[in-house]
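Troubleshooting: if your tokenizer reports a length mismatch, compare your output against this known-good record of 295 residues.
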Amino acid sequence: MRQHCALKHGIFKEFLAEFLGTFVLVLFGCGSVAQTVLSRNTLGEPLTVHIGFSVGLMMAVYVAGGVSGGHVNPAVSLAMVILGKLKIWKFPFYVIAQFLGAFAGAAAVFGLYYDAFMDFTSGILSVTGINATGHIFASYPARHLSVLGGFIDQVVGTGMLVLCILAIIDGGNIGAPKGVEPLAIGLIIMAIGVSMGLNCGYPLNPARDLGPRLFTAVAGWGMEVFSTGGYWWWIPVAGPMVGGVVAAVLYFLLIELHHSHDEDEKAHEEEEEEEEEEEDEDSSLKDKYEMIAMS
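Known-good structure output:
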């Protein structure tokens, strides 16, 4: 069966990995918000949401990491393109897979809690008001937050996410032990959640925010999901992309550019040693043949 069904082209494997990884992230993350909101905080609190998104990202990277790198975030993928760690022609495939995975994850959360949604809202799905449920799937700004403040929030938050990810996967830095990288990456979300979640709930991911927002638009919440908050929807899309680029450039200029080249020099020395050994073997064989000829 594997011979008949297994995909041969690498980009299709990576597409499916990013799709499934992002699906896992949204299912656990938005699912934790849904449980907290729909139970009216009896089965959840802010820490519950932080844990949900942190573990969700960790599991998402475990699911997709070995195939696609487990970006599950267009901002991360763009940073990898900037640093030459992802071929630019693959970028659109990654982004499409991530948006589709997030959309599917939101649909799964809605289906899982459909009865609870109907009970909580009496069948009226809204973004604002006492029984608002739109924020379960996408971010919305706090009352005090301006457009500029929200944009800066997303640039800084996503910048810290990407910066720390680059440090974790950097072979020239301390890094993380093989197989533990997803755990470390999940802890980044926990740190951001407990320190930068006040303004808008740290979306940090255009796919994770816009994908579920599109789902809510077609599932009953309507176009209010885009107009609420002074048409806030574009901030968690554009801000993270800028933050990812800024973080990639900063990490390269301040850290990666200054790595010593000991590993390259060591590899070059090993190649020279192998060449010398081959030359020694050739010369010894030549001496033997000459001795045989003389005898």
